[in-house]
Amino acid sequence: MNAIEPLVHLVDNDPQVLKAVARLLASAGYRTQTNLSAAEFLARYDRTAPGCLVLDVAMPEQTGLELQHMLRDEGIDVPIVFLSGCSEVPQSVEAMKGGAVDFLTKPVDGEALVKAVDRAVEFDKRQRERSEEAHTLHERLEALTPREREILPFLVSGKLNKQIAGDLGVVEKTVKVHRAHVMQKLGVRSLADLVRFTARADIPPQGARAP
Which residue spans of the chain are classified as CATH 3.40.50.2300? Predict the structure, then answer.
């Protein structure tokens, strides 16, 4: 994922604007893909590829705000930088409430646009890293048996194996075996690593009070 250069999708019904923005972003080192409509963008968009969207607000057939709403409804959270021919406050407020990274007016300042795209690409990178981590955590937890998942909160409770065995009504050797299997399947080497793993997975230690 990190080896793929981000792609900046440009959507505007004005070919001259697309050409100018593509040239500007290319000079800043970005790959771009130009689209004359929301429909063209949707037909070509690959949600698995990193990047962001530079989107015109006022377009025929489907406006930029309508596309933003559609993407959100579909669970597609590509970061968006809006461009508008006018600085209407209601539009900008709606766009930012919808999660837009920035809302810029045309003729857009080149430096401001590049900085906005930088922020959008960085946001997308962090977002994908969090998603990848969550997927990895889920996969490793799924590898545990029901009994191992049950004992996991006890293993990070700070109690000794003997105490955990007493709580569970098993012999101490059983706890040791489960601990070894859990750590192997979760890919951790120490208790500290196991504690960090469960914290990232939102698994509280046994006996911890709910927040």
Answer: 7-133
CATH class of 143-200: mainly alpha
The token duo for 37 is 């409509």
Full DSSP string of 80-126:
EEEEESS--HHHHHHHHHTT-SEEEESSPPHHHHHHHHHHHHHHHHH
Instruction: Give the three-class secondary structure for 190.
Output: coil
Sheet holding 80-84, edge to edge: 31-35, 7-11, 51-56, 80-84, 102-105
Structural element, H or E, at residue 7: strand 7-11
Residue 119: both structure tokens together:
């922020």
Q: Is 13 helix (H, G, I), strand (E, B) or coil?
A: coil
Rounded Cα distance, 31 and 37, in Å: 19
Place domain 7-133 in its CATH homologous superfamily: Response regulator (3.40.50.2300)
Name the segment(s) of the chain with CATH classification 1.10.10.10: 143-200
Contact of 66 with 39, CB cutoff 8 Å:
no
Cβ distance 70 to 53 under 8 Å? Answer: no
Helix (H, G, I), strand (E, B) or coil at 181: helix
State pTM to two decimals: 0.76
Structure token digits, residue 154: 């006890």
Q: What is the pLDDT of residues 60-112, one digit of tens each?
A: 889 999 999 999 999 999 999 999 887 666 778 888 888 899 999 888 999 99
The single-letter DSSP state of residue 10 is: E
